[in-house]
Design brief:
Catalytic activity: XMP + L-glutamine + ATP + H2O = GMP + L-glutamate + AMP + diphosphate + 2 H(+)
Keywords: ATP-binding, Glutamine amidotransferase, GMP biosynthesis, Ligase, Nucleotide-binding, Purine biosynthesis, Transferase
Number of strands: 9
Strand content: 15-25%
Pathway: Purine metabolism; GMP biosynthesis; GMP from XMP (L-Gln route): step 1/1
Shape: globular
Bound molecules: xanthosine-5'-monophosphate
Helix content: 40-55%
Function: Catalyzes the synthesis of GMP from XMP.
EC number: 6.3.5.2
Radius of gyration: 20 Å
Structural class: alpha/beta
Length: 317
């Protein structure tokens, strides 16, 4: 498609122009589509020697994120360092229940860990970020009030003295996916649903504990598998479980079972600015609930979120 070819060449030209002859770029990979497309594009523009990627394992990501990042890097020849910071994030979040406080703690610690690692990796001039057009709008530039503090925009470059490289700044998600396709990123990676920077911490209502994160990770994998089996994964903008922090009585076998209530959120959207709750067929909801309850012993009940955005937001926190 000539359109995307043109767009890619233009983006590559712009990266080269911005970074100059000798500029060094540090890229943060998150496990998601945007940061990966940004990295592959930059790799195309500058070659291997001038782009170093960093993946910080916060312990708040989906079960498959790290493997995806490693595979993709190998497949496309990206230079990547993986940092295990799980303990630090869990410790910093201990006892915190306020959503904005969670977001701030995670954002700040992310910057701190990132800075430490960046200094060890050498000298850089630019920080590469996979910021999209809707991120720019929702994070306050041009909008009257900030609803949630997103941790992927701002912060990092100032403290590291780096200039910002944001080659996807004018694009919407579907355009980024098209670009990724053109760049040879595998389809199953490109169609992954968006995932928030603060990760599972903002899908765990109340205090964040490893025990709860573990339930969420398993639930996420079960939900994703069912949606793929039923062929609806690609129709959804996002689909994820929320750990409600509420317990409820159920029956398992013949016995009383006092377990956790898991909420399932599935939405359709084009840019996340607005979203409709997914009018799932009852048979699908049934399969989701029974799979979750039978495969995750800690769960006793599954509820479905039928709030659109607005008035709800997509994430619960
Ligand atoms: P909300 O919950 O504000 O989410 O309706 C809109 C979209 O943004 C994602 N989201 C984030 N993405 N950093 C991100 O990179 C964040 O801090 C963050 N918070 C929410 C959310 O998953 C949805 O797609």
């Amino acid at each position: 498609n000539w359109n995307i070819t043109d767009y890619v060449s233009e983006a590559i030209r712009e990266i080269r122009e911005t970074v100059g002859e000798n500029g060094m770029v540090l890229g943060a990979l998150s496990g998601g589509v945007d940061s990966a497309v940004a990295a592959v594009l930059t790799h195309r523009a500058l070659g291997c020697g001038r782009l170093q990627c960093l993946y910080i394992d916060t312990g708040l990501q989906r079960a498959e994120d790290e493997a995806h990042v490693r595979n993709l890097s190998k497949h496309l020849g990206l230079k990547i360092k993986v940092v295990d910071a799980k303990e630090r994030f869990l410790k910093a979040l201990e006892g915190v229940i306020d959503p904005e406080q969670k977001r701030k703690i995670i954002g700040n610690l992310f910057i701190q860990v990132f800075e430490e690692e960046a200094r060890n990796l050498g000298h850089f001039d630019f920080l590469l970020q996979g910021t999209l057009y809707p991120d720019v709008i929702e994070s306050g530039e041009g909008s009257a009030s900030v609803i949630k503090s997103h941790h992927n925009v701002g912060g990092l470059p100032q403290s590291l003295g780096l200039k910002l490289l944001e080659p996807l700044r004018w694009l919407y998600k579907d355009e980024v996916r098209n670009m990724g396709r053109w760049l040879g990123i595998p389809e199953d990676f490109l169609m992954r649903h968006p995932f928030p920077g603060p990760g599972l911490a903002v899908r765990t209502i109340g205090p964040v504990k490893e025990e709860y994160l573990d339930i969420l990770r398993r639930a996420h994998s079960v939900l994703e598998r069912v949606l793929k089996e039923e062929g609806v994964y690609n129709e959804l903008w996002q689909a994820f479980p929320v750990f409600t922090g509420v317990k409820s009585v159920g029956v398992k076998g013949d016995a009383r079972h006092y377990g956790w209530v898991l909420a399932v959120r599935m939405v359709q959207s084009v840019d996340a600015m607005t979203a409709d709750w997914y009018k799932a067929p009852p048979e699908l909801l049934d399969k989701i609930a029974s799979s979750l309850i039978s495969e995750i012993p800690e769960i006793s009940r599954v509820v479905y979120d039928i709030t659109s955005k607005p008035p709800g937001t997509i994430e619960w926190e």
